[in-house]
Amino acid sequence: MIQRFQKRDLILYTFMLAILVSIWLAMFQIDRQWHFIAQTQDKIDEQTRDIADLRRQIQRGAVLSGPVSEADSQTLPADWQAFARADDASRAADYARGDWLISSFPSQVPTLTPFLSGDTYSSNVQRWVIDTLITRDPATLEWLPLVAEKWSISDDGLSITFTVREGLVFSDGQPLTAQDVAFSWHFMMDEKIAAPRDRSYYSRITSVESNGRDVTFQFAEPYFESFQIAGLMAILPEHFYGKYLESVATAEEFNRSTGLLLGSGPYRMVSPTDWKPGDLIELVRNERYWGWVSAPFERRIWKSIQVDAAQLTEFKNGGIDVYTARPLEYRDLVQDEAVTSGAQPFEYYDPRGGYIYIAWNQLRSGSATPFADRRVREAMTYLTDRQRIVDEILMGYALVANGPFNPLGKQANPNLVTRQFDVAKAKSLLAEAGYIDRDRDGVVESEQGVPLSFKITYPSGSDNYKRVVLLLKDLYVKAGVLMEPNPVDWPVLITALNNKDFDAISLGWTGDFEIDVYQNMHSSQTEPGGDNFINYKNPELDGLIENARREMNEDLRMPLWHQVHALLWREQPYTYLFRSKSLVFSDRRIQNVKVERAGLNTGGLWSMPMEWYVPSGQQKYSR
For FRET with 24, which of 7, 115, 193, 381 sits at 20 to 30 Å CA-CA? Predict the structure, then answer.
């Protein structure tokens, strides 16, 4: 039966129409409000930027007549030379601020909170947010003042005083003072804070005291890296982090945190408290930045892409601007015109690139492992065909390593011969250690009949690691040694390191022109949280490291490091695998990308100001 349209239906439809109109008007009003808020925020940001520019002009001693410009005609004073290269870039005819710089990490970052993070990835982010007293010229390697405007060193080398610049502020607008520098050391050294690695690194400092604009670092004894240690210490704001020292409970709150990150650097977190593992790592330009030149990019972003193939796809699709290629990829990509037309390749040995290694754990769950025997460790090195890894997996873009020291510098012992692949020698050493094939099943066993079998733990998602470990599995079995690959996600791997819960592990250490191996080889660093996670203890090595560390004269120090190198070469606590070339592509819209003595001039390293930029006509991202 057909229903007639009645009066009450008209009333109902009219009521519904009124509701819809009200909703539409409300949405329109909300949209206008959001637009107003966005405009207001833009004005606030612009005013904050102008104030920061005015502050920079005042610091330069400029006469404030006429409009403020990023690059004026002033000559940089000596105490602002850290910004000389960035200042030169800002004077280029096509220079412009804006756009985003997007990179990627091959693993998920577990925490961005200072002192709690022990991985390279979190450090890369922190360097853009947290300032240091000094920085370094990437071409000359000369130390330059940054937050400090000058320094003085006592004749005995035990006291270093830095004078902090006037008028500096953190990204929340609060002033940065010498007291914040002193607080940063006291915060880190407080036993309530879970920072054993950093406490070990800064253990030579006996006190840090502020007096006006001066802050003085006092050392217990001479140490060759004293100036670098003091000058590169992260400067934390006391007003933000100080509350976490109030009690054990507040310290535990800090220790459990993942995203407490606030500083005075050229970039800042959108929120300095809310970041969690799995979130996009996104920094925005610090509009209150005090430096001579402000940050060129509007945003600095890192994506977590844990599969190599996915990283390459993201790079080819333009989703990331800087891509570190695997050797096989690089060989093919540099011949791909579609890639090179949009991205510029760079190939170089980064002095800070460090080395890849296999570390042999000597004590697990309170019991000695087979790797507690030096002969077993040496046998494993003979079974590791490192030249084949370099040739077949790394396509020749690497050097075989025979120790922790940079072979391009003075610290490496030039008289040490790199062990070559030798199955017969490995079998002989294993037999000396009591491992022979007792039941003729092709596997060597101990005197108790226990097969020599273990797992190698390594980061999952990396094809290079996977290929290396699978090759080693085939090589080791030639001597009757059974190895099982154990790929794990980065947070799981960090937990295994902290708990010393692994048989063997393959990772990398960053390097430098001269490094200190106290952190990962001294017996004292086997404590929980220390970086001697393989439980290797050698009093002879401890003494050599200590002697080298306290020798201030480089000509006398290098022979001591050569002795350290010789002992590590003999003991083989690690099997040092290789030092890779950096094989990097950067989007061609990014200008002023160069290879310097310190590597690619990406900025951030040693808190160096960013020198890259994108001309306005080539920018692809906006706010």
Answer: 7
